[in-house]
Amino acid sequence: MFQVRIHGRGGQGVVAAAEILSVAAFVEGRHAQAFPSFGSERMGAPVVSFCRIDDRPIRTHEPVMEPDALIVQDVTLIHQVDLFAGLPSDAYVLVNTSRSFDELGLGEFARRFHRDHLLTCPATELALEHLGRPLPNAALLGGFAALTGRISLDAIDTAVRQRFTGAVGEDNVAAVRAAYRYVTLEEDEMVDASTD
Q1: 5-42 pLDDT, tens per residue?
Q2: In a 3-state reduction of DSSP, which class is residue 64?
Q3: Based on the structure, what is the number of domains in the chain?
Q4: pLDDT tens-digit profile of 50-89?
Q5: Where are the beta strands (DSSP E) in the chain?
Q6: pTM over the 0.85 mark
Q7: How far apart are CA 123 and CA 125, in angstroms?
Q8: How far apart are CA 122 and CA 174, in angstroms?
């Protein structure tokens, strides 16, 4: 089973991101579940959502305490919420920012993980470019697909189009593809740097 935890703020599409990811898994013929964890939150309050993907039926329904992947939609949560609780050293981490882990004050933290499993991606900037709105959720799923290889880009595209119809869906797909390209290029640069 592959477990994902998504952190963000109310209004950023944190719940929708987990749902889109689960639909993408269904598109690939796998089992999935998605659910949020929040109280009577308001716009801008911290929100966490979970997604599980497996080739077999999923029977557990508890929150994801030890995620295989962590997506951080709002970088301002880094020093407000314990985002990294329960994160194993081989987990994937994707953070919505154009800054590096060192610039975020997380350089020492990042060195405990596999270098090729941690990446930042300017998903809000990509969303603004393609959607005209600062909604990073769909773009981050494109980055997630590129970083982890656990879901295909085509499955994410299909799930996004099911969630958002018409021009909004196509604009979101463009943001997904832009983030996928960004992460792929970043990974290639990491490989080149490690062979120098």
Answers
A1: 999 998 899 999 999 999 999 999 999 999 988 655 56
A2: coil
A3: 1
A4: 999 999 999 998 999 999 999 999 999 998 888 998 999 9
A5: 2-9, 31-37, 46-54, 69-72, 92-96, 118-121
A6: yes
A7: 5
A8: 14
Instruction: Name the β-bridge partners of 18.
Output: none
**CA pair distance 69, 27, nearest whole angstrom:** 20
What are the E-state strand segments in 60-196?
Answer: 69-72, 92-96, 118-121
Among 142, 137, 166, 156, which Cα is nearest to 23's? 156
Q: Do β-strands 69-72 and 2-9 pair in parallel, antiparallel, or remain unpaired? A: parallel
Instruction: Return the DSSP state at 73.
Output: S
Q: What integer best gives the mean pLDDT of the chain?
A: 92
Tell me the Cα Rg of the chain. Answer: 16
Phi, psi (degrees; rounded to nearest 5) at 55? -85, -10
Domain at 42, CATH number: 3.40.920.10
Tokens of 89: 């050293």
Place of tokens 């119809």: 165
Structure-token pair, residue 179: 């983030």
Cα angle, residue 76 at apex, residues 16 and 92 outer, rounded to 5°: 60
Measured distance CA(84)–CA(148) in Å, rounded: 18
Sheet holding 118-121, edge to edge: 31-37, 46-54, 2-9, 69-72, 92-96, 118-121
Which domain range does residue 16 map to? 2-195
